[in-house]
Amino acid sequence: MLHSLYPKIKPNKIEYLQVGEHTLYVEESGNPEGIPVVYLHGGPGGSSSSDHRRYFNPEKYRIIVFDQRGSGKSTPHAGIINNSTDDLIDDMEEIREYFAISKWLVAGGSWGTTLALAYGIKHSIRVTGFILRGIFLGTDSEVNWLYGSDGAGAIYPDYYQDFIAPVQHQHFSDPVKAFHQLLTSENEIARITAAKAWTLWETRISALLVDKHELDSQEETHGAIAMACIENHYFSNHCFFEPDYLLKNVSKIAHLPAFIIHGRYDMVCQLKQAHLLAEHWQNSQLQIIPKAGHSGFEDAIIDAICQASDKMADFIENQ
């Protein structure tokens, strides 16, 4: 029987932390004396969900979830000024110190895995381990796969036509650049149209069976603008990494335990990236989920993450 999400719980605390001109929305839930874990949402530009805290046993874990710069309930909404990978890493340290946490388990999905790895490489002494779902290594080839007609667009050519409609012929050379022009435009109608198309494309290909409610919620203008503008900002800047930065530096965290979880039919982030990461990480365990795509809320993915969090709790408690 598959492990389901833990029961719904309310946060113990909600904080708004000031970091420069940004304000971060941060939640603490679960056991205040439990094992600290931080969960990193995707995007960049997505947002935290009340279900993210449900991956972890609330009796065993002290669960920290936050909205990254410009995302969700953090402000300024969709802000891309002083919004880089290093800024997000610094924010994590601010949050860790604010809650007086010495070390924490770092978990995340999609872009959250990218940020988790980047954080660990810089602050390995602050990490007890990793749970990573849907690996994205922040490389140009992965971005080209996701937005190119020869990548995911070849698997979903019908949805791809809807995706590129706002940029028309401009997409052929560089769809990310073409969307950037619209997403930074002063034409509000063009901006919103581009944002919805950008966000809907990723949502449509994120699971084997996409929930209609999820499609409707992802088209909601407020969230779509943040997701599209911030993702495009990061991808236009190569995620603020040197080429192959994460793989070249994974040796700095290879001594730490990691569960790597990836759907075999993930069309957003290709399985080969997870396989490559596991090959470079001596203390990792790769679990390929046979009947799953990219979403963190497919049943088999939920099962794998919850099982991993249970095993990691046992490991950390017995150290």
Q: What labels would you give this structure?
A:
single chain; alpha/beta; 2 domains; eight-stranded mixed β-sheet; 12 helices
Explain what the structure shows:
The protein has 319 residues and is α/β, with parallel strands linked by helices. The protein has helices spanning 85-98, 111-122, 140-147, 152-155, 157-164, 175-183, 188-204, 212-218, 221-236, 245-249, 271-280, 299-317; strands at 13-19, 22-30, 35-40, 61-66, 104-109, 127-133, 258-263, 284-289. Strand 7, helix 11 and strand 8 form a beta-alpha-beta unit. The longest helix has 19 residues, at 299-317. It is globular and about 60 Å long. 49% of the residues are buried. The model has no long low-confidence stretch (mean pLDDT 95).
Structure summarized in a few sentences:
Helix content is 40%, strand content 17%. The protein is α/β, with parallel strands linked by helices.
Shape label: globular
Overall pLDDT: 95
| Largest sheet, spatial ordering of strands | 1-2-4-3-5-6-7-8
Q: What distance lies between the first and last C-alpha atoms, to the nearest angstrom?
A: 29 Å
Going by helix content, strand content and strand pairing, the class is alpha/beta
Number of DSSP helices?
A: 12
Tell me the series of helices and strands, N- to C-terminal. EEEEHEHEHHHHHHHHEHEH
CATH topology of the largest domain: Rossmann fold
Biggest β-sheet, characterized?
Answer: 8 strands, mixed
